[in-house]
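Components:
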Amino acid sequence: MTEKIIQVDALARVEGEGALYVKLNGDVLEKCEFRIFEPPRFFEAFLQGRDYHEAPDITSRICGICPIAYIASSSQAMEQALGIEITPEIHALRRALYCGEWIQSHTLHAAMLHAPDFLGLDSAMDIARDAPDLVRKALRLKKLGNTLMEVIGGRAVHPVNTRVGGFYTAPPRAAIEALLPELDWGAQAARELALDFARFDFPDDEGDYHFVSLTHPEVYPIIEGRIGSSRGLDIAPAEWEAHFVEEHVARSNALHGHMRDGSAYLTGPLARYALNFARLSPTAQQTARDCGLGEVVTNPFKSILVRMVEVQYAVEEAARILRGYTPPAPAFVEAAAPRAGTGHGATEAPRGLCYHSYRLDGEGRIVEARIVPPTSQNQPQIEADLARVVQANLALNDGALKLRCEQTIRNYDPCISCATHFLKLTVDRG
Amino acid sequence: MAESEGPQAGVSHPRAPVEYFGQEKAGVLILGIGNAMRADDGVGPFVAARLAEAGLPARAHEGDGTGVIDAMAEAAHLVLVDATASGAAPGHRSMLDGLQPVPAEFFHYSTHRFGVAEAVETARALGLLPARLTIHGIEGADFSAGERLSAPVADAAGALISELLQEFAG
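Structure:
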């Protein structure tokens, strides 16, 4: 038997530092590990003793790409713990802000980091030379997402205008109205990028996924709903601990998320889309159909298309919310008085479900914090995808197999920095 | 952190976007690139803050490289200040004419590996470079967590600030 090792020591075009190690003995896959060596960051520990109102600002620092996910999930959890009922206007503005994050994060990943895989190119610079109009469109769309975050959140990276209960100040109507023409342009641009990407040659691959995401009877979930799954789970965020578990594995500085029975599950765009297709706008549904997508997508390589469908939806949804914008007054709802209690928050980060829970003492100080980012939850499924893809592509030479493995990981847009709160690849054929 | 990041009554809401690639370009814009909370990586923001205090059009940029491309639409002359990790002595200064190819290995790691070099080369391929692009690098020694600059980096930053003031404030 010939042993073979495929190893990538530092994965490119992912956020943070991780590696891949695959060991083959002939055609038998002996080991397949997605390793995260980005140092652990101990956020949950240093939140202890902090005041409840500090959690959104501190946890937003977990990620420069998806700070709103942390702000929104922690705010939600604190609001539940303290009995704060935010107004529909504040909820809508928070949702529009979160749309900005989906737009900029998904567009950066799809166009600049993931698309090169399908074009046989090394980087966004090469796409810019081959398809400049596509990259111009993507950059302008990403800027639109950033601008939404700036106008509503005060700045694009680690927004400063958000707080438990709502916003420090309500954005002026004129600044919001000035966004509308670009939002109208953006919905069509996202559709055009989706259709461009639909012409890629996608590897044949089907995953047998247990999809987990928020679900909601009326809207495509972003910051609302229960946690549902393709195998019948239907729970409130507060019931998280009864169904999910995180465990330490030696190869990763990020905890691995599992169902309580030890099985892997998948969170993120494919899961949201599969569980909530009917809640997408008719125009976003039409783009999905025009891209050749069914109502459930199980080919993870096509996640790039689902991301662009979600971008179209997010642009349309932000426009819908902001067209009817009335500055929320007050801009935030204050807690009556600090009190002991526990709160849970679950929102849909671009990469998937972002769950927070906090226990507070009578002074409103954090006694215990739990932060579960999407990439931690997806690690076991990423390893399962890698094992499946390697087994199906043993005929490929080492270089091609290595690239296919990296692509399999980039399907997830993994945020390693969040998860250590992660890539190198080794294929070992001996 | 509560004191420094408490209620932000003075939050200003930036102007809404104008047409992305059709703006009038005039004047100079200085962007200090980096993360002020990662020691010497913060040298760009440090320089930008001092220049802004002196009234120059300067600001920090801590996001990914695509924001640098966006900034190219704002001025005829874009000046970038960034920490380098080229292996030179700490505080070593370098200056690149951005109209020439920029080596990717030159700058310190940036989010999603879409950094200054990628931004400049992508902009070049798209025909978005401003009329003039100057890139000042200061070699960092320490990129660990914390708001501080190593002594040789602070010295180099001071010298660069004086030079840029002389060039643009006069």
